[in-house]
Specification:
Length: about 850
């Protein structure tokens, strides 16, 4: 009980000193709990949506070739309309509704702007039938009654400023048509972020599918007393197993699995960044308790002198840590719920509306948050607690502070050097690996060992690096700079731990910057070397390039030629050894050999576009013992008969563009695939006539102006697109890493604040012998800057090493250019100095306000 009272007294006596550590625990726990609450709420929302919108039994087409070929062929797999009458006769069926739904449509407003969501969610065009009322209410206007009328979801109407009476243009694979908005619908559960356009059934069949007597699925309602499982059995018995028949629960589960896989990726990624923040927070807590123990050496010595045992002293410090963990964790759980609500609001602004009414806080969430916060805090305080327990009663006769253990320092240094050396060996082995899979494992091991090694060896590095930084930066400030250097070197273990917290976040920033820049530079170099075409035409979101778009591109002026490129997915290839594999082929016009200059190891690529010819990749040829002149049996999805194609070229895998691709002529594919099964263009390439590049580019832009879903880019545009895409991803990652960096900055603030308290008498003496407040504040700011730059140097150096090793692995995939983003590295380094200045503002201000006499009299 005495130990508990002492711990409570010390905790509340030093609550100001504990505050920043508590904030670190709070932030880390909040990020973990916020992630769990957000994903649980999103899952619960979509579970409710899928459960409420699924019919008792649904009948859908089986996906041909094991995948949905809608995007490939431009045509949606359907169920014949003749099945409608058969299904109505099935025993136990109360009603059957035919459904039509497609995501291959583009909808534009009167300004020719795509009204689809920018968040990546789809635009869905569907027919209005009774099953839609399971998900939405018709809140304005009336249902569509002909080919010139559509309904729209109210959220899209609000976001795009559309109203009843406005005209829309729907661009579908069979063609395009115009219709006016006659009604608005509102989701009962949530708008999943998609744009939903409703037509009548006849219009959906003729305009969206191009097949007047077909449906994409049937929704069956069971008669009272008939279970969904029984109805499913009856349906399968009536129409056979050639269709995908699912009960309400099975359909809902499939929907949950589809969205759940994405949410799981997001959840674990965010938890990974939360883990980094927790790791950084450990350094802050270790430093806090180490300094508190050092400052209370005389007090602890006196406790030992009057009879307290080592265990009691140890237990006293751990109880303080427990109190800190409990306070920080409880606040973190509450903060996590607030963070989740804020994230839902943000996602709502991006089009994914998740109602806070569905807020889901599972019992496991606060338990996980409290466990993480408390356990991490207690573990982090364990070493300082052991150190406190070892303080002898004689320490009460000495000044506050414990002498450094030279032997322990040497052992720590040796272990750190050993770990760092092993990590460097692993990184070198990864850089020289022959296979990316082997190299990635070595890279992970090297990253882990070098990180731990740098953390362990931090105090030794602090002594070396701080002296170098001081010689370059601090000496120009004269005596104040030298004093700041000595303060930073006074306790290398503390400086090493503070710098290590910042090092972790900046190492990841530097690594990802190197990888991202190298990917962009490699792709740009490969583009310059391999792409001979002047223009690349692609459709956003994987939507098919429709026939109207193809005609528009071919009609552009100033072009030397246009190359159509189609993907033949899920093609079965039987090699001479009798083995069959499923692969993807690229069908293109012969000019594709000039538009995309793929290196070959045998043969001539242009020969692969001859009659009944094919090219294969180098790895495929090695794996299947295929050589020039061999005949492959190729079965295309939807093909009438198997094709016998002769290997006319073997392409090199020493490239990043279309690595491993196999090429055939479009005319070859057309001989074996019926016209209605032939894929639409995946992309188009075009070359301008000599001297007409600008005119051709302008003509292509004008021709495609009516099709906002299709983008034409020259090589400069394409490089910018790649850079922007990678940049957006990196910015997202940097944003998540910012939490760890914020916690690290709190560590710098806390270290300085406690250091000022620790040096109260010293500060008073310096002020007494003539140091001004301005000089004192500058000294503390310079100390903070050098600690921050120490962490930045370690982090940036370590991260660039990781990034360079990762680039060597990317080189095995054809991305061969190593690009160090010096502008980013220098900006981060300078930013670290600014961070150091900002972190020192409050401690320096407090130090400057100290009363000189009171400071000198401090024990």
């Amino acid at each position: 009980m005495t130990v508990l009272k002492t711990s409570m007294r010390n905790f509340f006596a030093h609550k100001g000193r504990m505050a920043l550590s508590a904030i670190a625990v709070l932030l880390s726990v909040a990020f973990v709990c916020g992630t769990l609450v957000f994903t649980d709420t999103t899952n619960a929302t979509f579970d409710q949506l899928f459960a409420s919108t699924s019919s008792d039994v649904s009948v859908k087409p089986k996906k041909e070739g094991g995948s949905n070929n809608g995007p490939q062929t431009g045509k949606i797999e359907t169920v014949p309309g003749t099945r409608l009458a058969e299904l109505k006769k099935v025993q136990g069926v109360k009603s059957v509704d035919g459904e039509i739904s497609t995501e291959t449509v583009t909808v534009v407003d009167k300004n020719n702007d795509d009204i689809g969501p920018k968040s990546g969610a789809p635009t869905v065009a569907t027919n209005w039938d009774p099953t839609e009322l399971l998900a939405v209410d018709l809140t304005s206007g009336h249902e569509p009654r002909g080919p010139t009328e559509v309904m729209l979801d109210a959220d899209t109407a609000k976001n795009k400023k559309l109203k009843i009476g406005d005209e829309l243009r729907l661009i579908a694979v069979p063609g395009e048509f115009r219709a006016k908005i006659v009604g608005l619908t509102t989701f009962k559960v949530t708008n999943p972020g998609a744009t939903i356009v409703y037509t009548d059934t006849a219009t959906a069949q003729s305009k969206l599918l191009g097949r007047p007597d077909a449906y994409t699925s049937f929704a069956l309602t069971a008669q009272p007393g008939v279970s969904n499982d029984q109805l499913k059995k009856n349906v399968v018995a009536a129409i056979g197993d050639g269709y995908k028949v699912q009960t309400k629960d099975e359909s809902a589960e499939e929907g949950k699995d589809d969205i759940g896989s994405f949410l799981d990726i997001m959840k674990y990624a965010m938890l990974g960044f939360a883990g980094i923040a927790v790791l950084v927070g450990i350094f802050l807590i270790v430093n806090t308790f180490s300094m508190l123990v050092a400052q209370r050496t005389r007090e602890i010595g006196l406790m030992r002198a009057i009879g307290s045992s080592r265990k009691q002293v140890n237990r006293s410090v751990l109880i303080e840590a427990l109190l800190l963990g409990v306070v920080g964790s409880v606040l973190g759980v509450l903060g996590g719920i607030g963070l989740a609500v804020g994230l839902m609001k943000f996602m709502g602004s991006q089009g994914l509306n998740i109602s806070t009414d569905q807020l889901t806080v599972k019992p496991a969430t606060p338990i996980i948050g409290l466990t993480i916060g408390i356990v991490v805090t207690v573990i982090a305080a364990y070493i300082p607690a052991r150190r406190a327990g070892k303080i002898s009663p004689m320490a009460a006769l000495r000044d506050a502070g414990t002498p450094a253990d030279a032997k322990a320092g040497r052992i720590r240094g040796a272990i750190g050097l050993l770990l760092t050396g092993a990590g460097v060996v692993a990184l070198v082995a990864a850089a020289n690996a022959d296979k990316a899979t082997d190299g990635s494992m070595l890279l992970g091991l090297g990253v882990l060992l070098t990180l731990i090694g740098f953390i362990v060896i931090g105090p030794l590095l602090a002594g070396l690096v701080v002296r170098v930084l001081a010689a370059v930066i601090l000496r120009i400030f004269g005596p104040v700079g030298r004093m700041a250097e000595r303060n930073a070197l006074r306790n290398p273990r503390r400086t090493g731990a503070t710098g290590a917290a910042l090092m972790i976040g900046l190492a990841l920033v530097a690594c990802l910057s190197v990888v991202g820049s190298s990917m962009v530079a490699s792709a740009s170099d490969e583009l310059d070397k391999s792409v001979g075409a002047d223009f690349i035409v692609q459709s956003d979101g994987g939507k098919p390039i429709t026939g109207d778009v193809v005609k528009a591109v071919h009609a552009a002026k100033g072009l030397d030629h246009v190359t159509d490129v189609k993907n033949l997915n899920d093609t079965k290839i039987t090699t001479p050894d009798g083995k069959t594999s499923t692969d993807n082929l690229v069908a293109a016009d012969p000019k594709f050999a000039d538009d995309l200059r793929t290196p070959v190891v045998d043969g001539t690529l242009s020969d692969a576009y001859g009659k009944d010819a094919i090219s294969v990749s180098e790895d495929f040829a090695k794996d299947h013992k295929v050589k020039m002149g061999d005949t492959l049996t190729v079965t295309f999805v939807g093909g009438r008969t198997a094709a016998k194609l002769k290997v006319a070229a073997i392409t090199s895998d020493d490239t990043s563009l279309n690595k491993g691709a196999k090429y055939v002529n479009i005319t070859t594919a057309e001989r074996y695939i019926p016209a209605d099964k032939m894929p639409v263009n995946a992309m188009m390439l075009a070359a301008a006539k000599d001297g007409q590049e600008k005119a051709a580019y302008a003509s292509l832009k004008a021709q495609l102006d009516d099709y906002p879903q299709v983008k034409v880019r020259d090589q400069t545009d394409y490089k910018k697109m790649m850079k922007d895409q990678i940049g957006q991803l990196l910015n997202l990652v940097y944003g998540l890493l910012a939490l760890a960096i914020v916690v690290a900055v709190l560590g710098v603030v806390n270290t300085l604040a406690l250091s000022v308290v620790e040096r109260t008498r010293e500060i008073g003496l310096m002020r007494a012998i003539g140091m001004s407040r301005r000089q004192l504040r500058r000294m503390i700011r310079l100390e903070s800057v050098v600690i921050a730059l120490f962490g930045a140097l370690l982090g940036l150096g370590l991260g660039m090493g990781w990034g360079a090793t990762a680039q060597k692995l990317l080189a095995l995939e054809g991305l061969k250019t190593l690009e160090i983003p010096w502008s980013t590295i220098i900006t981060v380094f300078i930013g670290s100095a600014v961070v150091g200045l900002v972190a020192a503002l409050l401690p320096a201000f407090r130090a400057g306000r100290m009363n000189v006499l009171n400071a000198i009299a401090t024990e």
